[in-house]
Amino acid sequence: MGFHGFMLKTEPEPSLAGACGAYCGACLAYRGELAAEAGRLLQGIRRQGFLGLAKRLHPAEGPKVDVFFDVLDRLARTPACPGCAAGGGPMICPVRVCAKERRLETCAHCADLSACADGRLKSSSAETRRLREGRARLRGEDAHFPFGASEYLARLVRKYQGWNLENLRRIAAEGLEVWEAEMRERADAGFRSVEIKSEEDVYADD
């Protein structure tokens, strides 16, 4: 006997759209390529015996050499990022927190997008308090957020040279599914977001 109309339910694939308009599928960290690159570099350097050579040539810099290799080793062993929608990236990303509070998947349909992307929206007292409390609890990279959603989104727009803002406008015009399908095709063809990133440090408190 058959199953007479019974169909297995399949879970939809999680979105790879970041709230800020970045596409996680084109990110080296999400694809595990950042760790792979670090591993290849570390292996090559070790094969050449560079660690011992560097310490002999610059004995006073020995501790810095050790730190460099330790960081490279940690990068090589870092698991792939699950993507922004699954909690990857900075734990207290203010853009993601803001979108969630507004019940938005991305910033694409937010009425404040233009002003926010220009950094013209000021943090509310509640947001400022939350960020301060979050920094007090956390250590490491997530402690580097002394600003709110608008300022951070503006930094990301500069970092991506407008690419993520263009993505948000395309999502608003075309729909998330259409945009994601196009981005998936580009990423599968070899596009990586690092190709259009500037060198600005978006985490630094200037």
Architecture overview:
The protein has 206 residues and is mostly helical. It is 49% helix and 0% strand. The protein contains nine helices and no strands. The chain has helices at 33-47, 50-57, 62-76, 94-101, 113-117, 125-137, 149-159, 163-174, 176-188. Mean pLDDT is 82; it is low at 1-11 and 135-142.
Provide tags for this entry.
mainly alpha; single chain; about 210 residues
Percent helix among the residues? 40-55%
Largest sheet: none
Radius of gyration: 21 Å
Low-confidence stretches: 1-11, 135-142
What's the SSE pattern?
Answer: HHHHHHHHH
Count of alpha/pi helices: 9
Could you tell me the number of beta strands? 0
Task: Give the overall average pLDDT.
Answer: 82
**Pairing-aware structural class of the strands and helices?**
mainly alpha
- Strand proportion: under 5%
Q: What is the approximate shape?
A: globular
In whole angstroms, how far apart are the ends? 69 Å
Overview in brief:
With 206 residues, the chain is an all-alpha fold. It has a domain at 90-191.
SSE layout:
Blueprint (H helix, E strand, L loop, with lengths): L32 H15 L2 H8 L4 H15 L17 H8 L11 H5 L7 H13 L11 H11 L3 H12 L1 H13 L18
Helix pairs in contact: 1-3, 4-7, 8-9
